[in-house]
Amino acid sequence: TAAGGAQRVRLLLNSAGDVELECHQLVDTPDRHPLLELPPPPAAPKALRIDTCRVSSADPRLRHKSTAREVYAEARRRCGVGQSGVDDVLMQNEAGEVTETSIYNVALLDEDGRWRTPAASCGLLAGTMRAELLERGVLYEGVVSVCEVHAALAAGRQLSVFNSVRGVALAVLVP
């Protein structure tokens, strides 16, 4: 953290080899940054709207962090993120399997009390926090269908979103 608080730092490298460094003040950051254990701390849940347009699990843009974010920006526009209380978009692939949100990885609490995160093969950015939580055994990887998310939430189970910058939060679905 800088004198002004926590910041997100982005290093950009173009094809000519030019480097650009950007720093952005973080507004809604967790009080602590060590990798957070699930379940998340009490906080207002993130309101997610499911995008009905499906992504291709074979799309290489989903697997790499880059400035080519059109697929995410379009999903956010379609779902009205930032309007009507929608915080983010829950994305799905061609098979109706959950992938990620536009800024978070996701995990669903199974009936046995274990957290399942969508498999990387579903088409998603396998974030650093996700990798650490998998390595620690806090999460396990598996397919999570959109129908399963609806059923789990209706049964009172939890959906969480997380990334290494913003931390962990519960999530709810909004129409």
Automatic annotation (TrEMBL):
Q: What Gene3D superfamilies does its record include?
A: D-amino Acid Aminotransferase, subunit A, domain 2 (3.20.10.10)
Which Pfam families did the record assign?
Aminotran_4
Check the record and name the InterPro entries matching this protein.
Answer: Aminotrans_IV, Aminotransferase-like, BCAT-like_C
Instruction: Specify the domain of life of the species encoding this protein.
Output: Eukaryota
GO molecular-function terms, A-Z: catalytic activity
Q: Where are the transmembrane segments?
A: none
What is the protein name for this chain?
Answer: Aminodeoxychorismate lyase
Organism of this sequence: Calcidiscus leptoporus
